[in-house]
Amino acid sequence: MTTATTQTAAATLRVEDLRVQFHTPRGVVRAVDGVSFTLRPGERFGLVGESGSGKSTIALALMRLIKPPGRIAGGRILLEDEDLAALPEDAMRSVRMARIALIPQGAMNSLNPVMRVKQQIIDGILAHERERSGSRNGSRSKRDLEERVAELLESVGLRREVAERYPHELSGGMKQRVCIAIAIALRPSIIIADEPTSALDVVVQRQIMQTLGAVQARLGASVLLIGHDMGLMAQFVDRVGVMYGGKLAEIGPTREIFAEPLHPYTQMLISSLPSFDRETSFVKLAGQPHSPLNPPSGCVFHPRCPRAFEPCPARVPVLREVRPDRFVSCHLYDGAVES
Amino acid sequence: MVAISQPQVGRQTRSRSATALRRPFVRYAIRRVGVFLLVVWAAATLNFFLPRLAPGQDPVRARLGTVLAQGGSVSGIEEMVATYNEKFGLGEPLWLQYLRYLGDYARFDFGYSLASYPARVLDLIGNALPWTICLLVVSTVIAFVVGTLAGALLGWTRAPRWLGHLFMPFLTLSAIPYYLLGLVLIYFLAFRSRVFPLSGGYTVGTEPAWSWEFIQDAVTHSILPALSIVLAQLGFWALGMRGMMVMTEGEDYMTFAEAKGLPPRTIFFRYAIRNALLPQTTSLALALGGIVSQAVLVEVVFGYPGIGTLLYNAIKGFDYFLIYGIVFLVIVTIGLTTLILDLVYPLLDPRITYQRQ
Amino acid sequence: MTTPLLELKHVTKVFGHGEGATVALSDFSFAIGEDAATIVAVAGESGSGKSTLARLMLGFISPSAGEVRYRGTDLRRLSRAERRNFRREIQAIFQDPFGVYNPFYRVDHLLTTPIKNFKLASSRAEARRQIETALATVGLNPGEILGRYPHQLSGGQRQRITIARALLLRPRLIIADEPVSMVDASLRATILESLLTLNREFGISFIYITHDLTTAYQISEQLIILYRGVVAEAGPAKQVIRHPQHPYTQLLIRSIPTPDPGQRWMEEVVASSGEGTDAAVWQGCPFASRCPHVMPMCQEERPPLYLTEGAAVSCYLYRESPTIEEGDLTVTLGALAGAGSRGNGSITVGS
Fold first, then answer.
1. Sequence-ordered alpha helix ranges (H) in chain A
2. In angstroms, what separates the C-alpha of B303 from chain A's closest C-alpha?
3. Do C20 and B10 touch (CB under 8 A)?
4. Using CB atoms, which residue from A202, A209, A234 is nearest to C252?
5. B275-289, B339-353, C49-63, C325-339: lowest mean pLDDT where?
6. Which of A234, A246, B57, B342 reaches 20 to 30 Å from A32, CA-CA?
């Protein structure tokens, strides 16, 4: 039997059985409940799901930014054989931005409103250089730094004068470009983009995603794109993982998943997507997501699943490779496992 | 007036903002100073007309009557009435009196004190003001700095645990009025244990002078009243700042700052405090502006020779001209601090612009 | 023609003045009649003027030029009684279903208030019955909803309660400003379906304001595309989306990522959104600086609306076609809809 944890040898990031729990007065919420996947060198990997599926929690967990009452309750986050989940906070701080960078949700609020763009890029760079050299001023002169800021801004399609602006003087798209510039400043090997275009218009969204794609190709970095829009996933990522109720329902190459989704939830998601070509454009997803405090037994999707059968309420399905590079967590494929 | 600029709307202005910033500022500053002068003029005018509206009330004669009733000497008073009649030209028409009055007030000439004639109101205020400024401004600023910092740490999730125990004492302190706190302090530290003097700004019998002994004496006298103000205000600043910090910590830019791998010290000072401080600054300016009116209670409790005691005595002794002078001063101070705040605020928060909506 | 329910006549809205002035909506004319209930979508990016349009129609702001008329009377000159009717007949649904709730009141409060204010029920029992019917119409179980506090409800439930609230007043027109942009995809369909129910079963017209052409396509009959305060293209929704004629509409539709991995969405170079263009743009077509087909004439004068096959398009590429007055947009849309496949004015949606 092959499990997701051993899928490929080459991996930039290997997430194994990650668990994130939130301890609330009304009980424990298992926001991420045993998730495993790998991020291959230079690939674009997507995590897609509805709100509450745990996808954004994974982004924060990989950066080790889960705040109480939440905590990483188990699992490993292996970045080049170093377990980030077990790293002391000081060591983790030097990993952030330098090796794993985050592009935050495009919600307009990610930049400090009272600092110039320039300062917000430089403080990140300096924090890491000081750490490395141990000196207070780092190695470069002010002019070198400003030139580097200008180059970074130009590389994401902004004019260099933007460095002197305050965030409120920029449009949503420009702010998100600044965030991309910050994310690539230290040439990380992994970029996590958490709904980077959620508050942007479609035309701007496309420009931002094209910019992200271009800088990623230049750096050779891997991108983890987190989102809810299947259309965006189809256009941007090479492989996609579908999240439901804190677990991965399915992982596979994007083209194959859209051509032939295996998990009933993925099937539902894809068939409900509106299309301008079809007249029938109004398919509802049956049922509601369960309460996070009280997940169903067995497979968490079984109450909504049109193809549920005897084992579903009883046993939790395991994510298995049922075809080359296609992983599904569903009892329908219990017999189809390749040996 | 100051307006929050709208990001989506200002498209055209944005490109020119660097060069255009100065000219709107000048226009705004002129307008704002104009408003200030208008407020001061209105206050002065009210000061002039209100007593004259009261039927049959002549403050000079009323005072004279009081003194006579107490069997006091009338020689000084008669002289004063004569001076006033001449000075104000009480026989002259009202508008001429008004103009004369405005001219005097513009030169901060508030006339003579009724109670301690021939002392001039301005001199009395001038003697009392340094005491109030030293005591209240200094203690308010100390309370602000210490309270704000403590509040920032109280609201900071990564601050040491023991700091959390400060919350209840702060909450309690902020609920106690400072004159009450002052009485308690006097009882324990001055009356029972005699560590500090009971009251006054300096030892009775000494004359204010710029000597080392006198300054030491004055500082010793100011510690108790200052302590009562600092302790009572500490809670207010700490609780306000704590609330702002909690809100700021929920902002997206805080998460992003952490994701940049910034050390906690940088995040605390440059991201959290910097943003949470903005509303606190407004409160500080208002607190400083209202200092003279705040001074009354604490100075009276401690028998401190500042503006508060002066005002208290003026009210007790129906010293109208002194009251007018102090009230006018209070209005000018409040107007001046809000003026400074409005002019300086856009430097603290770049989102505020000088543009008119 | 009878007096329209709500009519905008050459409405222009300018925010600010002097150098910082921004034209949010420019010479916009449109009318909603009463004879046939319809759903008109107004779509555009942020800064297109679509939300300004909603606020103008609701009387929240007044036009800088032109008039917004309710049953023939300028909104600024309504009598008390007329204003009362206006407040009942024209309802609004907003993007954020959290914002309209007072967290200290049970949701019942939100539903009983309009009944009391407009004296819609003669007794408590009657009021209760009306509320239950309205909730059931939007697919909610009254027993699960009534008596609860807002925080105990999901976003989708809250948004449907606001729809039920609007329904209680039996309005003629509901202005829905981005009603589904904050809810999950799985709930989006449910809410849109509630809107359709109100439209079909109660004859309520909708102005559906959105940045999302997909949902506009799903529920609207007619579609108006706004670009920087100006109508770029208008026509039957399916026609405009399947065969976009204005270069801006074409760009918008090509920019939507589709679930088809063969779309080549990442390859095509997209013209920049024209950051920093100044007021001079207003002389010509506002899209000229980004348009791949730009001609000298585009920068001189703003193109009128041309009546092409199937739509009204403000673009000189179609200058061979007859022009239409912007005031006649309503008539044009009506005629276009009549000529289309769905002559009865209702839409077929569903599987």
1. 55-62, 89-95, 117-133, 142-155, 172-184, 202-219, 230-236, 254-259, 264-271, 311-314
2. 45
3. yes
4. A202
5. C325-339
6. A234
